[in-house]
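User: I'm putting together notes for a lab meeting next week and I want to include a structural view of one of the chains we've been expressing. I don't have a solved structure, so I'd like a prediction I can at least talk through. The sequence is below, exactly as it appears in our construct file.
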Amino acid sequence: MIYGAMKFSLGGSLKLAFRPWVEGIENVPTEGPAILASNHLSFSDSFFLPAVLDRKVTFIAKAEYFTSPGVKGKLTAAFFKGVGQLPVDRSGARGAGEAAIKSGIEVLERGELFGIYPEGTRSPDGRLYRGKPGGLARVALATGAPVIPVAMIDTEKVQPPGKIVPKMIRPGIRIGKPLDFTRYQGMEGDRFILRSVTDEVMYEIMKLSGQEYVDIYATAAKRQMADEKKKAEAEAKKAEGPGKGKGHGTDGPGKAEAGA
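Assistant: Thanks for the context. Below is the predicted structure for the 260-residue chain, given as structure tokens.
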């Protein structure tokens, strides 16, 4: 009931304001379980995709969204529950992965749609990164549910990372044909099979999105970018010299030069 009301109000508002275009919506089954595996460009991805579908889509969200204190925290929790998000504690990497897998299986066993981002996090630069083999492949093989590749287009331009107010840019959603991995059921313990399933899905997402593919994890790319930024800042600070930015005392370099 809450989801229906939230979908009607939020989904209707998003479609009216941003007019997202959609291709391949007929590839989403009208009933029965299915996994929607999407690239991840923006925080708003989890809202635009459900907005254009008639069925409920359940995504995984950080537990912090559901446990923050105060009135704002309660409103945030109600909002995320209303749009079909499930809380997962990410305090432990392995525990978070197992919780997400369990939640995904439960959603699919109810005959619903489960949304997942194989990259594991938002792309830091708009490129498509290597998919993590744990969640997507294990849920698919454990349930036998078809995997539907999805490409979000230009959502990072609507709401760039760190920006609260969205830009009025028309995003797009491209939905591919379902992929059947039932031939691998019972083999979710084989890491080579998990890697193969994940790579096949990522290849289809790449074709749909037109993104440049980078064969490293997005989390590793973010760490690398952060390290490079710190290094550049340190080098810039070093290049300024020890006297840069200090006060204007009578013995300072600028005063001495002026009196020369």
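A couple of points you could mention at the meeting. Confidence is low (pLDDT under 50) at residues 252-260. The chain has ten helices and nine strands.

User: Perfect, that's what I needed.
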